[in-house]
């Protein structure tokens, strides 16, 4: 079983690529964001540690879960809090991901295990995965997708793109580039060329 990391900038179409992988190959797809969200629910150590940080006010919602928008607001306003949250969440996510990879390996049921995360490179997953894939799309295509799928304004898109890792940097850290600027069929043929 091959363990492959999937990353790329906003609007590159990572979700589309993951859907194509799920539909056409014998694999498991895991989203780092979903693992993190799960670990930050009551009953997990990660939840307890995050709630215990010195927040300006409680980040617990009425139902006892974490008020995610409030937490995001505080993290955006306070770099130190953001670093503390990441120091708790990222190692916990990595541990859970590796547990799931080992579990799938022991079952011998699938050929590929894909992990998607925007910050795979930043979090050091390059040393854990067998291959790192960069999902690429031209800037024009990304802008069009973000306007159509998320209703982003041009200004918001420009601001978002300006703080993301550069194309050159993604290419430098990744083993393969999947060009997802065209049709699903064009993307799928690239995936087939690699995986078949």
Q: What is the percentage of strand-forming residues?
A: 5-15%
Domains (count)? 2
Strand count, sense and barrel status of the largest sheet are: 5 strands, parallel
Q: So, CATH architecture of the largest domain?
A: 3-Layer(aba) Sandwich
Structural shape:
globular
Number of strands: 5
Helix/sheet category: alpha/beta
Characterization of the model:
The protein is an alpha/beta fold. It has 2 domains: about 1-25 and about 110-195, Rossmann fold; about 35-110, 3-Layer(aba) Sandwich (Rossmann fold), CATH 3.40.50. About 55% of the residues lie in helices and about 15% in strands. The protein has 9 helices and 5 strands, in the order βαβααααββαααβα. It has helices at about 15-25, 30-40, 45-50, 70-75, 80-105, 140-150, 155-165, 165-175, 185-195, and strands at about 1-5, 25-30, 110-115, 130-135, 175-180. It has a 5-stranded parallel sheet, sandwiched between helices. Helix 4 crosses helix 5 (about 80-105). The two termini are about 15 Å apart. The model has no long low-confidence stretch (mean pLDDT about 95).
């Amino acid at each position: 079983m091959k363990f492959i990391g999937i990353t790329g900038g906003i609007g590159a179409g990572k979700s589309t690529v993951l859907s194509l992988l799920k539909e056409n190959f014998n694999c498991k797809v895991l989203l780092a964001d979903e693992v993190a969200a799960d670990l930050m629910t009551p009953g997990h150590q990660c939840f307890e540690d995050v709630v215990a940080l010195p927040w300006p006010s409680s980040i617990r919602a009425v139902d006892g879960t974490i008020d995610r928008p409030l937490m995001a607001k505080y993290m955006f306003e306070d770099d130190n809090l953001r670093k503390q949250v990441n120091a708790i969440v990222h190692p916990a996510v990595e541990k859970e991901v590796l547990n799931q990879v080992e579990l799938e390996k022991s079952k011998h049921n699938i050929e590929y295990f894909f992990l998607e995360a925007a910050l795979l490179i930043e979090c050091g997953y390059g040393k854990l995965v067998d291959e790192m894939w960069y999902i690429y799309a031209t800037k024009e295509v990304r802008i069009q997708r973000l306007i159509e799928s998320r209703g982003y304004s041009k200004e918001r898109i420009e601001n978002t793109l300006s703080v993301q890792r550069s194309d050159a940097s993604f290419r430098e850290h990744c083993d393969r580039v999947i060009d997802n600027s065209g049709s699903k069929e064009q993307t799928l043929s690239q995936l087939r060329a690699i995986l078949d």
